[in-house]
Amino acid sequence: MSIEATIWHYPRCSKSRKTLAILRNQKASITMRDYLEDPPDADTLAEVVELLKIRPYDLVRKSENLYHELDVDAGALSDRDWLELMADNPLLIQRPIVLTENGAVIGRPPEQVHEILPTKE
Fold first, then answer.
1. For each successive 10 residues of the chain (121 residues), what is the average pLDDT?
2. What's the CATH architecture for 4-116?
3. Which residues form the catalytic set?
4. pTM, rounded to two decimals
């Protein structure tokens, strides 16, 4: 049983490459979105955060150098502010994100993608 999956992919990220390999191994029909070249807007990020069942702050890569360079006052930002910040600075978005009809996951660890893939019979 094949499934359609969209992956917000960053080719230089090992977790992203491993998650993509899992999708390919599962014979998923894959749409890749290079979210750095084609960044999502704040409304799209809001939809993805809802699918992930997390808050916008939880989607932020706090280990990213840019996060520290921006010197963000985390307590001063609203959820909408976080969405706008990620839309303006897509490097701050956790990766990879996989979206399917069964839900969405962040591929950290990559094996987490199995949660939204059909089981092989």
1. 91 96 96 96 98 97 95 94 98 97 96 90 52
2. 3-Layer(aba) Sandwich (3.40)
3. 13
4. 0.92
